[in-house]
Amino acid sequence: MTKREPYENRIELLQGTLDMLILRILRHQAQHGYGIVQAIRAGSDDILQVETGSLYPALHRLEKQGWLKSRWGTTENNQRAKYYQLTATGKRQLDQEYSRWVRLSGAIASLMNPGEEQA
Amino acid sequence: MKSWWQIFRKRDDLAEEIEAHLAMAERDHIDSGHSPETARSAVRREFGNLTLVKEVTSEQWGRTGLERFSKDISYALRLMRRNPVFTAVAVFSLALGISANASIFTLFDAVLLKSLPVSRPEQLRILTWVTQGSDPVGMTDHSGYSMTDDGGRNVDGSFSYPAYETFRKSVPQFSALVAFAPDEFTVTANRTTDFAFGNYVSGNFFTGLGVLPRLGRTIVSADDDASKPPVAVLTDLFWKKRFGSDPSVLGRVITVDHLPVTVIGVLPASFQGLSPGRDVDLFVPMSVVPSTALYYSLSDPNTWWVQIFGRLKPSGSGAAAAAALQSALLHHVESYAGSKAKGLRPLGIVLEPGNRGVGLLRGGLGTPLCLLIATAGLLLLIACLNLATLLLARNVSRTREISIRVAIGASRRRLIRQMLTESLLLAAAGAATGLILTKPLIALLIHFFFGDSTLGLDPRIDIRTLIFTAALCVMTTLLFGTLPSWRATRASLESGLKVASTLSGGRFVLGRYLVSLEVALSLVLLAGTGLFLRTLWTLTAVDLGFDTSHLLTFQTDPARSGDKSADIPALYDQLEAHLRAIPGVVAVGMSHQALMAGYISTAPVRLSGLHSPDKASWLMFCSDSFLPSVKIPIVMGRNITRAEFEKGLRTAVVNQTFAKRYLPKVDPIGKDFYMNNWDTEKEDPRPITIVGVAKDAHYEGIRNQVPPTIYLPYGLRARIITGMTFVLRTRVAPGSVAPAVRRAVADVDPTLPVAEMRTEREQIDRSLQSERLFAVVITSFGIIAVVLTAVGLYGVVAFSVSRRTSELGLRMALGAARRDVEWIVLRQSLAIAALGLCLGLPAVLALTKLAKTLLYGVTPNDPLSITAGVVAMLAVTSFAAWHPARRAASIDPVAALRSE
Known about the structure:
The complex is a heterodimer of chains A (119) and B (900).
Chain A: H1 15-25, E1 31-32, H2 33-43, H3 52-64, E2 68-74, E3 80-86, H4 88-112
Antiparallel strand pairs in A: 1-3, 2-3
Helix pairs in contact in A: 1-3, 1-4
Chain B: H1 4-31, H2 36-47, H3 50-59, H4 65-82, H5 84-113, E1 124-131, E2 141-142, E3 146-148, E4 154-156, E5 158-160, H6 161-170, E6 174-189, E7 192-201, H7 205-209, E8 215-216, E9 231-234, H8 236-243, E10 253-256, E11 259-266, E12 282-285, H9 289-292, E13 303-312, H10 318-337, E14 348-353, H11 360-396, H12 399-407, H13 412-450, H14 463-495, H15 509-541, E15 551-556, H16 568-580, E16 585-591, E17 602-607, E18 615-622, H17 626-630, E19 634-637, H18 642-647, E20 651-655, H19 656-662, E21 672-674, E22 688-694, E23 709-713, E24 724-730, H20 738-748, E25 755-759, H21 760-767, H22 769-803, H23 805-813, H24 818-847, H25 863-889, H26 893-898
Parallel strand pairs in B: 2-13, 7-12, 9-11, 18-23, 20-22
Antiparallel strand pairs in B: 1-4, 1-13, 1-14, 3-4, 5-13, 6-7, 6-10, 6-13, 8-11, 9-12, 10-11, 15-24, 15-25, 16-24, 17-18, 17-21, 19-22, 20-23, 21-22
Helix pairs in contact in B: 1-2, 4-13, 5-11, 5-13, 5-14, 6-10, 11-14, 11-15, 11-22, 12-14, 13-14, 13-22, 15-22, 15-24, 15-25, 16-20, 22-25, 24-25
């Protein structure tokens, strides 16, 4: 596990958050494990770095639950890799989780700053 | 459930997937300037513990049944290691129970269930003929087995040899018809002569049955030829006994009934002929019959002696075969009996299934074996109950562990499955240990049941025993494992993660009921012990009517050694003189068969003055010295004299039962009676005079009543009786003169066999074999059962005390004396025992009735045995509860209350 910055955002986010991020990344495009890690890093400006120790169990768990499906493919560099993509149920799950997350974070925000308006 | 193959593939896939990830990460590192080596190590470090990641990921796939099972097994093994005492007790008690059952089952299987060791035994049929009353036409001589079936018909298995030859020619439904007949031989080999038991067999016997030799070759049709030198095949038993398993016996010439015979082969250990019941020593071809058989004939159609087995062709039907045999037999009889055959009732042919041989043995042993199995089953049940109780107690301390497992997601079914696996492992360990005990146990049982012989059986631990043991294993697991597992997981769901303090197991009611059940079953075994010990005691205490100490007996037969026309009195004189000369021998007597050996000779006699010869009498043909040697006293009149014995004069001594029953209220001395002449089969006109009355003595066995017996001079016997049993009264230990006896007989005639030499005490012990077996087995089981019950009781009471520490402490703090607390504990255990006894008594009363036929001198509901059992159980109960009671009394009330 690398500590690139003092602020460790190890995704001890509840397990569900990592799942949600993975599903989001895969919403429009199939991707392999390494690609997902890079996408999360890039999409969060290097703030969120997924531990591979959590990623692969999550990917396989999501696949077992039927929200992802996988197939073998080749990368641009002719590397054989396993690509994951969202299933229909996975899409529905993503929407559900996102709306739950929005409600949750809104509640936390209003608790942290009661009465103040967002700047 | 995933298959192994799928799991391998998934693992491979995952490895490849992760390799791809690492490769891509490496490439990126190299692209951004690192060297390949730095890239590789950095990537791997970033990734983390490869193995752990793979492990955790693969867990996401869910576990297969097999994976779960192996995890359960390793957990169970850990548990067993952590509780060595418990494991040892459990495994040991299961081992005892399972080995007892497995050994008795093996015996049961060998005696009652197994097929003959021949090829395709289901194709074999035994030929029997059936009549309603009368004998077949012209049959004058008959040897072999016959019996009356339930319909009053006479069923018989003996045919004449010409009939056998006719069958072979004219009945096509059989692919082979084999014939055999038993006979006694004397065999001289290595300069010793001894009795042997063998079969005459047809040339196609071994090939027809599909029996292959272990050494050499078997008899074939070419050997069954009178013009060729005779051959013999030995059984494995005889080969071991007589020739010490020496392979050079092949080709050796031995003497069979003074006929030189070449040994051509040795049979495998499992084959002992088609008629289990006696140890068979050798097989010879039919062609030998005219030289050695006294009562058999190959040519006379009126002598019926040969037993026939047929192998039915796969296409043949039994009914067609029987019909063909019947008509063939009819034609055959007509061909020699001519007109006499007509008008007589026809003979029916019945084909019995032959896969188990001629089944005379099975009947007599059925009940005893069933009883033994039942007893062993009871013992196993007690062991299982004990184990269930112990498991119930132990599981109480596992509540916390179980709750945690439930919390992290284990279903109840999963938990039960795991606990059953633990139980299965215990049972398997018990079964494996038990199997080690089984072999010596079987040997012990056989020794007790059958003495030195194996009775032609081959009980061995084979696949059937193993299957039975495995089935027992599973059954016992379910028996003792289900309840504790079910109970433990139920308790966990209710109490959650709370620390268990006063669980429903506090009073441990279930455990107490189980132990009560054990007490009940133990009572049954104890009652059985009492009954069989008393039976044995009573039997050994019966006054047999003669002095059984210091008596040595042996059998010989001058006819078998070639002295066909021997002058018996002269031979006897010589033998008697030599035997008397042995130091330590006080008296020598002789009779035609041994006392107390299970043999009987009977004949009807007609008392003079009466018309019908209907007084059945047991006969003993003996020398004048017989009665004095065995010390049967004469109470009236006199014994037969030396002269009367030597000349075979027509005088006799009768016993008291004869006199009382047939000549009541008159003086029997001087009365006459008539017997049939053995040769003419008509009544002999010369009367036999009673000269004395002897005290009653048992004749064939202890259980039978004393029969009306007549002691006659040996010369009056039928000519076909040639055996002589000598009895020697000794001053010293009778066994010690045995070698001198052999030398003395050899001095007179080296070809005279000396057989069945034993002391009279041994003879009587032999006749008590199965009673001794029962007494030993049931007593051992009773003791084991009591020990197990005591252990169970101790466990339950100790556990209960430990749970009630605070309550008892409180009592003592409030003023109860130590003695009172002891009594509370004792009372609880007595209550358990009392419940068990209440359950057990009706069971005892009902079950002991089943053993009625095996008992002697005691009623099945013998009050003494039952009371003794009850008292014993109460004593054991008190003893088992003593230690926990003392522990309870020594509770420090203050400490107990504080810990509450």
